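Quick check before the chapter quiz. The format below is the same one you will see on the exam, so make sure you can read both the input and the output lines.
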Amino acid sequence: MSCHKRYIYCCMGNRRSFILLFSLFFLLFYFDSCATRDANSADSITLDAAIDETASYFASRIPSGAKVALVPFDAPAGLLSDYVFEELWRRFEDSGRFVMVDRRNLERIDAEIKRQYESGRVDDAQMVSITKQYGAQTLVHGRISAVGQGALAPEYRITAYATDVEKASSSQSAFIVKTDSRLASLLNASADDEVERAVLAMARSVNQKTIIAVGRISYADTQTVTNFSAWLKNSIIAGAQKHRDKFQVAAESESADFAVASRGMTVETPATNTVIQAVITGNYSPLDSNAEVLLQLISTGAGKMVLASERFIITAPELERRKLSLLPVKGSSVIGKAEFEAKQKAIAPYSGKNNKWAFTVTPDALDGIYRDGGYMSMLVYSGRDCYFRIIHIDVNGNAQIIYPVSADDNNFIRAGQTRRIPDNTRYRMGPPFGEEIILAAAYERPFTLNAKSGSAPLSADALTRSLSAESDGGKPMSPSATARFSYTILPMNSE
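Here is the expected output.
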């Protein structure tokens, strides 16, 4: 008897064992088939088909005649979000079943929801409240997310919600979308396309021609700006100049005057006759190997209202092609993340979080970017009479006190006064290129510098001991208020 026949005979000899074995093989086959089908997504559909299905699904569930607010979906790429919004809008409108909320009001709803998301406070109740302010009965919103890994995942899930703002109840639809040529083209939008789309969305958010400036666009929640910041600024300005009916971009000199007058975002009367009405600012952070960018158009009025908020992705190939770095350079190479984080930790005591009174130090460049051969000065403001000192940290991480450095330097500032430092000149910018930092500390009494003061490698210990201040009695003094800013020196021919 062959081995094969003997195996069957043994199994048949124990009917229960055979059934269990067969059941096990069946289950394994079933789950394997499910996994294979899920991985290959035989049920996935094209993007346009998913939009059709979503529109049909809600057309049968939203009451006829309802006033509908449709806002752009959260998506990996701005162009993808715009495409889904426009196509859904057209299908909803063509159905003749709904009254669509005016697009200008939609932009206000979307901006407010995004602002709430950025603050980390948004919930369903807030979204409903925001939507009701504009008379809408149903809010349609959603997201598009990758199913899988990589910059261009094999599939995406489109999930849409229709929320009844009166009942605070939602219906939901979800479809798996395969990466066809249309979806791939929307996901692989160029960096220029993404910035231009974001600027267009911000232009739509204003009712009249607005004088704007481009402020600091920094890495994550730090003040660090890089050549990526400079490229973003130039791209934003180029995009804004295409919408002259909505934006007038302030000249560099006007922006510098605004930076001096504003002391951050506490806006005062600018030195020029040009009144900057809004500032584009933002941040970026790593997302896998890509860069996730958030831009905001902020009114300079008393309320500092967020007029528009746009988020998009710049892909790794685009960063590589343009030789853009998210982290600052030191000389000719990008610094490592560990070194960057160590520097941030060392300067953390100068965050100003525990200040006893208002105390700021700001650069004369609104965006914190200087070019080789340019000049820099800074402004120190104090809400109370005090004595101050300023520490400079160079590209290589060496820290030294740059004010006061002699008996002739007057480091006393009166309450409500703004002092320009240096007093009678400016600092000239030059290589090595990269990020430099200014730290300022305020004291209630006069002080003398520690005898060990001088250039020292950057560390928390160096800042608290080697660069410490002493009272007339020789006792170490802790500052009552601190402030800081960082700036980046770039070659003339860089972005």
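If your answer matched, good. The chain has three domains: 47-187, 191-326, 341-490.
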